[in-house]
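QA checklist item 7 of 12: single-chain prediction sanity check.
[x] sequence parsed
[x] length recorded as 365
[x] structure emitted
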Amino acid sequence: MTKKEKEILEIIRENPLIEQSEIARLLDISRSTVAVHISSLQSQGYISGKGYILKEEDYIVGVGACNVDVYGRSRIPIRTHYDHPADIVSGVGGVMYNIICNYVKLGGKADLITAYSDDAYGMMITSECKRNGIDIHDSLMAKGATSGIFMQIQDENNDMYMAICDMSILENLTPAYLRSKEKTIRNARLVVMDPSLPDDVIRELIGICKDHTSLYIDPISENYALKMRPYVPDIDLIKPNRGELENLSGMKIKNDEDLFKAVDKLLEQGAKRVVVSLGSQGILYADQDRKIRKRLPEEKHMVNASGAGDALMAAIIYGDVNGLDIDKTLDYGLAAGIAAIRSNKTINSEMSVELLDKIIEEKKK
């Protein structure tokens, strides 16, 4: 598909009954040229029939944070008020970007709805999304704002010591902006969201998805899990860790019995499916009919503590979109988490279904 054909396809997607003369006016080209491009799109199978019925590929939509990550790993034990020698790396990240990027690397098609600016960080974001095949044409570019920034300090063992972030750019996303993307959202196989969005945007997204599109949520942190408690009945799949599950359920988890009770509480409140990330202890999956606890042998070669949860979520989504059974999907989720911590970056550049199969085979020997 040529660039001009892509432009025409997008116009038709917004208005399937549009006249060729109107497309010509919008693109400042002749009507005959439009006719040639439409004929080409029809021959390629992208559109057909009266009213330009579109042939849509399966895709998911991610709504949430995309920012620049800066990681600093101290070479010595952390001390307060001290200048530490460190290894520092930076790159594009953010929970939603990480999930979507992993999903695309697994072979999926995705549309990312986020906000970024026209600053240097925004240029990094758009460049990396393009390089990784992530569609951001529905994202908001907020001129003059500051693109999202996340900064993390890691100790000498690669574990997070502290982190700070500025995601105020997301305040530029509004319910009205989301409504302008309603067709894209409702036509998706599923929507995945992170709770760093403003409350009114979260409520709008839930309303758009209701009765149309499954909504998956990653709580991100214990504080954000508290924010998400009122929305549990509207969630089709939620992926907390143990601490986030405590705040979502409103109960302390001291043992396995408590863990199962907390999951049951979310299901009773209306959540359709729950996937609890338990670190080296594996995954607990639960829905109204069953509970499955799985783990792979503990990984002994952790390079980077970040990104495992995002990779897990991407693999769960991949399994659901491709109709895999729950056991295979959970195995892929566990393997994706291992792939993430084996990489020195948040997203393993080698992430693929083939890599997940290899890790599963390796771990089950």
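[x] summary fact logged: The mean pLDDT is 90.
[ ] second reviewer sign-off
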